[in-house]
Each structure stands twice: as structure tokens, then as C-alpha cells.
Amino acid sequence: MMWQRIIRISFLILGFLVLYVSLARGSLDLMIKDEKENELRKIPISSEISYKFPETRTLPTNPFYSLKKIRDQLWISFTKNQLDKCRVMMLIADKKMSEVMIMNQQNIEKQVVVGTTIEAINQLKLASQGLKKSQLNETEKETILIQINQAKYVYKEIIKTLKISQEEQGFLFSKVEEVL
Known about the structure:
Blueprint: H1 2-36, E1 41-45, E2 51-54, H2 65-78, H3 82-105, H4 110-133, H5 138-161, H6 166-177
Antiparallel strand pairs: 1-2
């Protein structure tokens, strides 16, 4: 009797896990298609260059944010094409910076804002490192490199607007400079 319950619960958990992975895989395919067609980036950032962030609805303060982080890692691991992998990592970095802007506007605890900013910068750094290691042709690399440099500029502009100390700003600026 007890074993039957354990087996049923195990199958139920396994079923939900398979469903979650399937949904993550399906959303990755849609996301890559939309990213290539530039349909995900909708939030314009006012600066000297034209740069748009993707929309985000789930912030790090949301209890379901850990599921979003798992999905992001699944997206990266499912992506085999190196160019698409760089795009996915850049998209995740931009989503995190979009979260930073929203949290800054909502006056959310500055440690969460700084931590999310560091995660975004680290994700951008991973994209640039992946680009260096890739076997892409120079034209493809140059396109992504331009996007990474634009992201660095925009990230610095956003960091200037954050409600954090000068020391924290300086630290974040130095982290951005480590990219590439």
C-alpha cells in the first residue's frame, strides 16, 4: 500500500519533470526564432545607440524565479549551434538587465539589484568567451562582437542610474570592463 503511493508519486514527479523539460525545449526553439527575427527586444533604451531589451515579467523576488533560472540553463545546454548559444546567453544577460531596471524603479533591496546586475554581466562575459572559442567565421563573430560592445555601453549607462553607492558602481563598472 505504502509502496504503491511512493511509486505513484515518483511517476507523477517524473511526469512533471519530463513536461517541464519539454516545455523548456519548445520555448527555446521559439525564442531562437524570435531572437533571429528581432521580435523579442521591445523595450527601447534611450542612449546614443539604438538598443532594446526583451520584456521580463518574473523578478528575482518572485518565488518562481528559480524555475526561470533552471529554464535559462536548459536553454543554454540544449543549444548546440555556437552562434545561437552566444545569442541565447546575450538574451539572458539582457533579460537580467531588464529586471535590474524594473527593480531599481520599484526600489527593491539594493543587494538584489547589484546581484542581478553581476549575473547579467557574467552572462555577457560567458557569451563573449564562447564567441572567442567558437569556430565561427569572422563576419559572424564581428556581428556578435558589435552587439556585445553595444550591450557593455548600455549596461554602463544603466549602472549610472542605479540607486547604489559609488563603490558599488565602480565595482560594477570594472566587472563590465572585464567583458572581452
